[in-house]
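tool_call predict_complex ligand=flavin mononucleotide
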Amino acid sequence: MYDDLPTSYQVRDITISPNIVLAPMVGVTDSIFRRMILSLGGCGLVCSEMTSASAVSPRARSRHRQLDYLPEERPIAMQLSGSEPELVAAAARVVEELGADILDINCGCPSPKVTGGGHGSALLRDLPKMERLLKAVCNAVQIPVTLKFRAGWDEESLNYLDTAKMAEQAGVAALALHPRTRAQGYSGVADWRRVAEVKRAVRIPVIGSGDVRDAADALRRLRESGADGVMIGRAAMHNPWIFRQIAQLRAGMQPMVVTPADKYEFLTRYLEMCCEELPERLALNKLKQLIGQFGIELPGAAALRSAIHHSTNVAKAREHLDRFFAQYVDAAVAG
Ligand SMILES: Cc1cc2nc3c(=O)[nH]c(=O)nc-3n(C[C@H](O)[C@H](O)[C@H](O)COP(=O)(O)O)c2cc1C
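tool_result ok
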């Protein structure tokens, strides 16, 4: 039923297989989260959180934490934002030295803090500048450069086709389009017909990003848009097994049913990894952030979320997790 769909794509000589990838998310897709996702299977590529080029220079090494990764995460993309071509090109060289397989440039972030500095989706308002930036970066590094962008600044200035064609000419090796405008933020819907249009307009791989909620959704989007790959963001926080479920559905199997035991194991392992690698306060914050999005989907979930949000240390938060899941996990084991 899904045999006709592509299963991989090439970013120059790098094969991305499967063609279902984790979207970059600031504050979320750090090395720990990426390794958790990869450990569950079905995800072909991960990307760092967006990092400002101005924070990435050979002298700013200690501030590169956001670009930390482990070899088992490869192939890995690292994402930079910026507005000054030479500064981003210099940061691109650092990213290459750090061992990234792919350098991704962010021209989609709608946050006023980012666009205010001329970064992210602000570049959609100045394609000649974006072109200079992309050319400078492509010339600066050997690794493939990819672009993640939005459909335009607002509905009155939709320029995704011009952006895509310009980027291809500038030497960009693949595109990821989140087909909302900057003005939409995360409201409304991601119009995947725009992804289909971009796919028809260029020869480099095109990845679609936006509103993929479950396995069937991902494969339907892939089919309808003709895209080379699908990127999954928020749904990966809600259901980290979505990548594996897509692989199962594609192989003709029923997607796995995620049990309370799976959820308990994921959350506790995530917390343990955070505690091993981060100061306690940050580890606790990471859990608080994930639990806000994570699909617990059991009676009492709201109370658990609230209890964790009010926890003042990791031990307390862990206690809440243990107590909440004990009822379900014991039952699951007994059954
Ligand atoms: C919390 C959060 C952080 C994000 N950070 C980034 C980022 O660092 N770089 C980027 O290109 N997009 C970022 N995005 C956008 C996502 O990569 C993705 O394109 C968007 O969320 C739509 O996909 P989704 O519906 O699957 O979440 C972020 C989105 C969210 C929700």
